[in-house]
Fold each of these.
Amino acid sequence: MFTLSCLLTIGSLPALNFCHEISIESAWAKFTDTAVITLPRKVKVVGSGQLPDLISVGDAVTIQYGYDGQLRTEFTGYVSELKPGTPFQVKCEDQMWALKRLALPSKSWRSVTLHELLVYIRDQSGLSFDIRELGGLTVGKYQINQATGAQVFDDLKKRFGLNCFFRQGVLVAGQPYDAATATTHRYGFRQNIIDSDLAYTQATDVALHFRATSTDPSTGKKIQVDASGVVKTKKAKGDTTALVTALSAGLAKGELRTLIGPPGLTASQLLAWVQQEAARLQFDGYRGGLTSFGVPLAEHGDIATISDPDYPERAGAYYIDAVTKTFGVNGSRRKLKLGPKA
């Protein structure tokens, strides 16, 4: 039988090896990972005082837990809010919390790469973290005007479709999936899947209509492609300057999905990218999520292989979009939300 173990480091407090419950929400699309630590209120720290009085907003937080003393760091960040009461809750956010609070010095570039921009944000914020860029990209002409690092990340997502998020303390920028480095975890019905809302669907059951844009980093002009085969070239403000047609290669019509493609694509390159996205989002396979135990140690961006002894032909591999981790008196669980096929 496995025994649960934990170690919580909060500010200058002595490390705590107990809790009532820990809940961690981790998803690349959410921008910021969050954690809630639930503790007994009437706990005194020898020589210091009661626990709630010893924790402050902004305190650094590290959450480690596992089985039989084998601890793994599941969350790092800062205290973002204190919720007094019985029990006592400590709400936390990952490193993005610090990047939301400090305005960066104004600066403009005639042309800047994504990596150079991320290094500037990190260094000017006075923080220390590794940067992992998934695909070398040039942002082009760019200006920061008294914005925080988090606001710059939000702008990059809106303008260029670039995702910036922390994964295990590392700032990841670009697309959220990388098959070359993703860890694969195995899940099976009647094995380690405790519960699920998984539904197996055919690609033909999901009717989607795609519309995508790509921005030229040097000029600010946008190219737009949709499933009807129309390609529009427009200025950043949206004024149409040209109209050409292109083949849509049979992309399905249906529910509209608006996508932002990588910057600097030509019309034909953007059309090819839309076709790849269509194939990624329209597939025969499982959709939904599952709940498993504290292991496997899945994180978003990893790959989950799903098997069912009753339907072996449905076996497949999927990227993980989100993970909800819980630990405490009711055990350790990981709830996964599946994304596209890997």
Note: The first helix runs from residue 96 to 99.
Amino acid sequence: MKFPTTFTLQQISEIIGSEFVGDTNFPILGMNEIHVVEAGDIVFVDHPKYYDKALSSKATIVLINKKVDCPEGKALLISDDPFRDFNKLTDYFKPFVVSNKNIADSSKIGNGTVLQPNVFIGNNVIIGNDCTIHANVSIYDNCVIGNGVTIHSGTVIGADAFYYKNRPSGFDKLKSGGRVVIQDHVDLGALCTIDRGVTGDTTIGEGTKIDNQVHVGHDTVIGKKCLIASQTGIAGCVIIEDEVTLWGQVGTNSGITIGKKAVIMGQTGVTKSVPGGKSYFGTPIEESREKLKQLAYTKKIPDIIKKLENK
């Protein structure tokens, strides 16, 4: 998430009520999670296990819960609760804005686009030309839809990330200020759910086709010309490269990469990153030929046991 203008270290510290280490005029351009940070961004860290990763990341401002040596060229925001203060910044820069009509006045809808009854279009949504949005679709604030996109009934685009911190009082939600970006000529089936990024974008690439009842988690990036079948669940922060096929009821772990032109067979659990250009099956995931051989061998076990018993 980029800020509308450059803020100083002191200004940000005043918004969240924290101490800081660095020049008062140190420039801050935005805020992001660790996997998408750039120079000028704030990243938060609240566990010693991840201090080094955050301090050595591309982020130049680290919101942290302990006073540590500040790396050269960077600045620190010292907070007793970085998770809480990251939420404060999301509320400040991307606050929830109540809608009072089905199609927000601030939305932009292209020529030739058809909106069927009961479609909801949130604030600052951009929809391109020649799209078809079927009945009862909800497109939350700040989403971007390209040209020639079809979205079937009941699909929800831009719901919050499923991201919580377990506290003694219960689960504390990390607020979402990111977007969903759907590129040109994407088809989305009925009852799909595409969550927005926490601070960045959840992206579906040009020409990708998605079946009914598919879930795409926050900050996931799906490439071009992918084919994703029904009841697939894709976790957050997944990278699916171009021309990947996911057959029905595939599930993935978060933070993995599926390589270009990989084929994932139905009901596979993608528990780790896999290279492209191959077919995969099973849980835990393996190349499909190897997995199917193992299953064939397993069927022979009773006969082997009987032969051993008869000796």
Note: The mean pLDDT is 96.
